[in-house]
Design brief:
Blueprint (H helix, E strand, L loop, with lengths): L1 H32 L4 H10 L4 H12 L3 H12 L1 H8 L1 H4 L6 H6 L3 H7 L6 H28 L9 H17 L4 H17 L5 H15 L11
Helix pairs in contact: 1-2, 1-9, 2-9, 3-4, 8-9, 11-12
């Protein structure tokens, strides 16, 4: 069973590996370009592991903003994970000692794989640790490249946006219903126009969550044992 889980996890995460090696390398290069060596870059990818927030974190580190600003920025950027967590309550409830790491490592791409799989904590763990390994390896490669190559790093962080678009397209093509995708796009654009680029994320996530709950898409997942 373990061998079967490993094979499934490797196969399922191959597309993520392709993206994370590139994105992690981009992060490592950006860190090096801003004066932070491989130690800092690996520490962030090991203990923070937050994708887009890591890219934003480089700017926060270099600008010397307050801890409150860091906390609020992190909340706005990663607010979607509040709803990821709600939808994974049932799947993770029997994960035992693996549960803290599963919660910590639930990135967008990992969530995309895990939420569509049958309940299997061992498989979830393998997917999660493989995905983070790809990111850490990419970070190391990027940091080393940043040390030996000199080039303009402007625009590298757009690679993360490209990956989100790829995941969205894949789910659209293979999913049987598109309400959640359409809802996400329409509500996000509307909130962007209403609240502006600096304040749209939290209201957008709240409205999307309310819409999904009303349609019953996350009703089952948020049930508790009581």
């Amino acid at each position: 069973m373990r061998s079967k889980n490993i094979k499934r996890a490797v196969k399922a995460t191959l597309p993520v590996m392709a993206g994370y090696l590139v994105l992690g390398a981009g992060f490592g290069i950006v860190m090096k370009a801003n004066g932070y060596g491989i130690g800092w870059a690996l520490a962030m990818s090991l203990f923070l592991y937050a994708g887009s927030m890591q890219y934003i974190g480089v700017g926060l580190l270099t600008s010397g903003v307050s801890l409150l600003s860091v906390a609020l920025t992190t909340l706005m950027v990663n607010a979607r994970h509040l709803f990821y967590g709600l939808s994974m309550v049932e799947k993770y409830q029997d994960a035992g000692a693996k549960k803290p790491y599963l919660i910590f490592s639930l990135t967008d791409e990992t969530y995309s794989i895990v939420c569509s799989a049958e309940k299997n904590p061992d498989y979830y763990f393998l997917v999660s640790i493989l995905d983070q390994s790809y990111w850490v390896l990419g970070t190391a490669i990027g940091s080393v490249l940043g040390s030996v190559l000199r080039f303009n790093t402007e625009g590298i962080d757009f690679a993360l946006t490209a990956l989100f678009l790829t995941v969205f397209t894949n789910q659209w093509l293979h999913g049987k219903q598109h309400f959640s995708a359409v809802c996400g796009v329409v509500v996000s654009v509307a909130c962007l126009l209403l609240f502006g680029p600096d304040r749209f994320l939290i209201p957008a996530m709240l409205i999307i969550a309310a819409a999904l709950v009303s349609k019953g898409y996350i009703k089952k997942e948020v049930k508790t044992d009581g």
